[in-house]
Amino acid sequence: MKTKKNLIYADECYQIIGLVFKVSKELGFEHKESFYQKALAKEFEDNGIIFKEQLRCKLKYKEKELGIYIFDFLVFDKIVVEIKQKRSF
Length: 89
Description:
Elements: H1 10-27, H2 33-46, E1 51-61, E2 64-75, E3 79-81
Antiparallel strand pairs: 1-2, 2-3
Helix pairs in contact: 1-2
C-alpha cells in the first residue's frame, strides 16, 4: 500500500485533491467540465497555487507527430491535472 511518503509530490497532490473535493462538494455533479475547470482555477488562484491552463503539448510516437494534446492544468510546473465530469468522483 502506498503511503504519503511513497508518493511523488505527495504534499502538492494532496493539496490539489483537497481543492478538487471542495469544488465538487460546492458545485455538485452533472455540470459541464468547463464549469469545474473555471471553479478549480479560482481555487488555485485563491490558494496561491501556481498553474497554467489549457497547456498545449505535441504528442509524438517514434518521432512522428500524432497531434496536439491540451492539458486542463499544469500545476506547480510538474503535475498535470485533467478534469473529467462524471456522476461520481
